[in-house]
Write a structure and sequence with these properties.
Blueprint lengths: L3 E5 L2 H12 L7 E5 L6 H11 L14 E4 L5 E5 L12 H5 L4 E5 L13 E7 L5 E7 L2 H12 L2
Parallel strand pairs: 2-5, 2-6, 4-5
Antiparallel strand pairs: 1-7, 3-4, 6-7
Helix pairs in contact: 1-2
This protein binds adenosine-5'-diphosphate and magnesium ion.
InterPro entries: P-loop_NTPase, T6A_TsaE
Main location: cytoplasm
Keywords: ATP-binding, Cytoplasm, Magnesium, Metal-binding, Nucleotide-binding, tRNA processing
């Protein structure tokens, strides 16, 4: 069961949710994004970047797997779709235990490398541009983040 969920109606709204979430994050926090192609995972990551004060344009890291951005905290944006059915380790540990925030699209493809706890945001498509964002916190730390975010909606 998700801790809570909310519906957005535009990509701007999804970015806004992520932007607010960003203000609650600390170094070493890990977010995983699930949802089909076009659900809005990269859109969410763009909002997160804005919330962390990243000035550069954030694009999908599908081909590079990881992109790093300088913000108030460093942002490590990963898209591990291409690692499906491989056990390639691109040094995940250093990112997950690093001094920045990690956001991972298609994280279940690298399940073995994920840290013990993280916050999963699952995005599902509804009618038109509706998206349901469901939050699954992996421990108390992420639960309090989700609770605070929930309080703003
Ligand atoms: P993913 O990374 O999950 O494949 P993207 O973020 O790249 O998805 O693409 C999502 C697409 O859906 C974008 O074109 C975005 O503008 C559009 N979109 C429409 N409505 C929404 C919404 N409510 N939230 C997020 N994206 C939306
Ligand atoms: Mg994407």
């Amino acid at each position: 069961m998700a801790d809570f969920q909310l519906t957005t109606y535009t990509d701007g709204e999804t970015q806004h949710v992520a932007e607010r979430l960003a203000t609650l994050l600390k170094p070493g926090d890990v977010l995983t994004l699930e949802g089909e192609l076009g659900a809005g995972k990269t859109t969410f990551a763009k909002g997160l970047a804005r919330g962390l004060g990243v000035k550069r344009t954030v694009n999908s890291p599908t081909f590079t797997i990881i992109k790093e951005y300088d913000g108030e905290l460093p942002l490590y944006h990963m898209d591990v779709y291409r690692l499906e059915n491989t056990d390639e380790d691109i040094g995940f540990d250093e990112y997950f235990n690093g001094d920045g925030v990690c956001v991972v699209e298609w994280a279940h493809f690298i399940e073995d490398y994920l840290p013990d706890a993280y916050l999963t945001i699952s995005i599902s498509c509804g009618d038109n541009d509706n998206r349901v964002l469901a939050f699954f916190p992996g421990n108390d730390h992420y639960q309090s983040i989700a609770a605070e975010l929930n309080g703003w909606w």
